[in-house]
Design a protein that fits this description.
The structure is a single chain. Strand 4 and strand 5 form a beta hairpin. By secondary structure, this protein is an alpha+beta fold. Strands 1, 2, 3, 4, 5 and 6 form a six-stranded antiparallel beta sheet that branches. It is built from three helices and six strands. The chain has a domain at about 20-150. The protein has helices at about 70-95, 105-115, 185-190, and strands at about 20-35, 40-50, 55-60, 125-130, 135-140, 145-150.
Length: about 200
Amino acid sequence: MYSTKTATVNSTEFTSSYMPVGINEKVTLKEVNVNKTPQGRDFLEIIFENEQGQTATMTEWKNEKNMWIKTDEDLQNRDNQQFGRILQVIDACTGGHADFEGTSFVEMINWVKTQLTLGTPLQEVRLKVVYDKKGYTKVSSLGIFVEPMNVEQSQIKLWKNDLLERPIVADVETATDPFATPTSDTSDNLSTGADDLPF
């Protein structure tokens, strides 16, 4: 039932549960998860939270050889870059890290979880959040993307490759020729002798 006496107007602003894109201040580490997908792939998930309770996620997967990573040297280079990103988070949140030498991805992500959940008080950080190519927010992986709040001259920069606007993907339309004859005849039409005439 509709009534002018019970009609309401929503005048409150919508607040997303995801951290806004850009450089966010006073962000804390919410949780660190070491998980496995149903297909058996291990991954590390680091979740950050701002003062409003909005979150941003950083996910790291095991690097494997593919069409872009062809040699062992390329794979080691990717592993070094990945571990460098993770060490940025550890250094910013805890103020430093212990030395580590590991041989597997699972060993490394378990060490990371231990470093970030030891019980030492974690610092507030400044964090860069961007859109991914599908339009979801994520923690950036370019350059310096996290630093402690006590750093006066911020080293975090917004790069031209950082997606700061949600990508818009148009619907895919298939081209059809209006003058083409239909090519799909059903077997019922052929067997009964029906033709295209409406009468």
